[in-house]
Amino acid sequence: MRNLLRQLFHGRYGSYGSDRLTRFLLLLAVIMLLLSITIAPLAFLYYVAFIDLILCYLRLFSKNITKRYRENEIFVRYTDKLRDLFKKK
After folding, report:
1. What is the pLDDT along the chain (89 residues), one digit of tens a residue?
2. How far apart are CA 22 and CA 56, in angstroms?
3. Which of 18, 32, 56, 89 is the residue whose CA sits 20 to 30 A from 67?
4. 1-21 in b/e burial notation, b at 16+ Cβ within 10 A?
5. What is the pTM of this model?
6. CA distance linking residue 23 with residue 30, whole number of Å
């Protein structure tokens, strides 16, 4: 099983592990799924979370490693600025 996963991710972005953007998208999807289950008017979030999960898998299985790396770097840059803004206050 381990070799199968290794072969599956060979040459793909997911072979380097998950980055901050992927972990954020997964956490966001889980939160949206929980909200859609518990609060009836927010049931549409189920579909948004499903699209979010598809995006995560597309990022992990992408062979365009430099583009995924750049996306993560942009995300990290903006979130670090946001963190610094809240730390100063």
Report:
1. 878 877 888 888 888 788 999 999 999 999 999 999 999 999 999 999 999 999 999 998 999 999 999 999 999 999 999 998 888 76
2. 6
3. 32
4. eeeeeeeeeeebbbeeebbeb
5. 0.83
6. 11
